[in-house]
Write a structure and sequence with these properties.
Elements: E1 7-10, H1 14-25, E2 30-33, H2 37-45, E3 56-58, H3 62-67, E4 74-77, H4 83-92, E5 101-104, H5 110-121, E6 126-133, H6 135-141, E7 144-149, H7 154-164, E8 179-180, H8 183-213, H9 217-227, H10 235-245, H11 267-278, H12 283-295, H13 298-305, H14 319-352, H15 358-364, H16 375-385, H17 396-419, H18 424-437, H19 443-454
Parallel strand pairs: 1-2, 1-4, 2-3, 4-5, 5-6, 7-8
Antiparallel strand pairs: 6-7
Helix pairs in contact: 1-6, 5-8, 8-11, 8-12, 8-14, 9-10, 11-12, 12-18, 14-17, 14-18, 15-16
Length: 487
């Protein structure tokens, strides 16, 4: 029988099923396979009562799956990141031919995607690692897709991926080619890191209103709903308002009954580690990751709350003004989060030789993904106006908004400190901004300290960059200096 499927999909958990249905709904014939083949049967049986699913073909082995595919064969993996991806790839290789394409749609680490691209290209196959954002709903109705890998693969997968992706108002798909080898999963990783930062900032705004003003969940819900009509308009602001308004069976806000320990799947931590390795000051996202770690110390925090003193948190000041200040602090901090994320993009592009489309990345996030926000249009415009923009803070829109929000931002952080309310993301964002805008930082003293105890040398402001000097600070040292290296 002549192969007829446009694409194969392996992995029928919720995301895999919804992506298969999305492809089916856009007219593509999809062959599906799952290691537990009963899931295939359960999924296909749904087509018996839903005629619209006739494009989905169930298979019970990888050999059968690949036999159903048109050339070049396209196989998308929706399996758990890590060893499972490598195992499925090894099972696929004997059934593929030169030019066939494997697409990894899981949350894989970008270095794994770099390795897999090189490995499969050496065997005549093509590999694409694509970030998929938007959760279950996005997978079904239109996710944000961030593909990168073997460039030759893009013309063959472009139609399918852009068809199933979310669309902005003018119909532009939230999917475009990101770049070489692991760049697609790198962009998804940074997306998730920014998501950590956005969520932490929103939680800090909630905490400030609750702890400092004594506002209840309904009141704060109304504030977030109002904010969602302005410059903070975003999916996360919208769902925060909905969450705070949601009632448990007894009529009380459900959010008040949820244990305050946050989980994570690791992508935020990957982002922070990548920043440390690249020397990028990704302070806000790092603090967001650490805030989740701190939240997990619930029993320790309960015990500490009984013995460690603090200050009173409820304020009697101008409530309306403080809420407006919190809004500005949240927006300014959000600008810093994206600024740092784009700094990491530039560092990775330089290190790995990627040709990243910075404005296009913002457009890919405009709809379908968790961090979708009106704000992203301004990022795209900034790079459209200046493709060589070195830092988002230097773009007119962001420079002006930071300037207008700065006084409120400082008032909020100061009040949080004097009220004993932790705002690690907002305060680290402000510290980064102040550090970035300062021509002179105290690193001159730091470098002197390093030279004093370790002969690590220093540069001088009255000498050309690249010339290093050592001082015998005590009169007892010698002229031998330590070699320079980057940890």
């Amino acid at each position: 029988m002549e192969p007829k499927a446009d694409i194969g999909l392996i992995g029928l958990a919720v995301m895999g099923q919804n992506l298969a249905l999305n492809m089916n709904n856009h007219g593509f014939i999809v062959a599906v396979y799952n290691r537990t083949t009963s899931k295939v049967d359960d999924f296909i049986n749904a087509s018996k009562t839903d005629p619209s699913l006739w494009h989905v073909i169930g298979t019970h082995s990888i050999e059968e799956l690949t036999s159903k595919l048109k050339r070049p064969r396209l196989v998308m993996l929706m399996v758990k990141a890590g060893k499972a991806v490598d195992l499925v790839i090894e099972q696929l290789i004997p059934h593929l031919e030169e030019g066939d394409i494997i697409i990894d749609g899981g949350n894989s680490l970008y270095t794994d995607s770099m390795r897999r691209t090189e490995y499969l290209e050496a065997q005549g196959l093509l590999f694409v690692g694509t970030g998929v954002s938007g959760g279950e709903e996005g997978a079904l109705n239109g996710p944000s897709l961030m593909p990168g890998g073997s460039p030759q693969a893009w013309p063959h997968i472009k139609d399918i991926l852009q068809s199933i992706a979310a669309k902005v108002e003018d119909g532009t798909p939230c999917c475009d080619w990101v770049g070489e080898n692991g760049s697609g999963h790198f962009v998804k990783m940074v997306h998730n890191g920014i998501e950590y930062g956005d969520m932490q900032l929103i939680c800090e705004a909630y905490h400030l209103m609750h702890a400092s003003l004594g506002m209840n969940a309904d009141e704060i819900s109304h504030v977030f709903a109002e904010w969602n009509t302005g410059k903070l308009n975003s999916y996360l602001i919208e769902i925060t308002s909905n969450i705070l308004a949601f009632k448990d069976e007894d009529g009380e806000p459900l959010v008040n009954k949820i244990l305050d320990t946050a989980g994570q799947k690791g992508t935020g931590k990957w982002t922070a580690i990548s920043a440390l390795e690249s020397g990028v000051p990704l302070t806000l996202i790092g603090e967001a990751v650490f805030a989740r770690f701190l939240s997990a110390l619930k029993e320790e925090r309960v015990a500490a709350s009984q013995v460690l003193s603090g200050v009173s948190t409820i304020s009697t000041g101008d409530k309306k003004r403080f809420i407006a200040d919190v809004r500005e602090a949240l927006f300014a901090s959000k600008i810093i989060s994206y600024t740092q994320g784009y700094m990491l993009f530039r560092a990775a592009a330089t290190e790995y030789g990627w040709n990243l489309n910075y404005g296009g990345i913002a457009l890919m996030w405009r709809e379908g993904c968790i961090i979708r926000a009106a704000f992203l249009d301004n990022i795209k415009q900034a790079f459209d106006d200046n493709p060589d923009l070195s830092n988002l803070l230097l773009a007119p829109y962001f420079k002006e908004h930071i300037a207008s929000s700065q006084a409120a931002w400082r008032r909020v952080v100061a009040r949080a400190v004097t009220s004993g309310i932790p705002v690690p993301a907002m305060s680290s964002a402000l510290a980064f901004y102040d550090g970035y805008r300062h021509e002179q930082l105290p690193a001159n003293l730091l470098q002197a300290q390093r030279d004093y105890f370790g002969a690590h040398t220093y540069e001088r402001i009255d000498k050309p960059r690249g010339e290093f000097f050592h001082t015998n600070w005590t009169g007892e040292g010698g002229d031998v200096t330590s070699g320079s290296y980057h940890a």
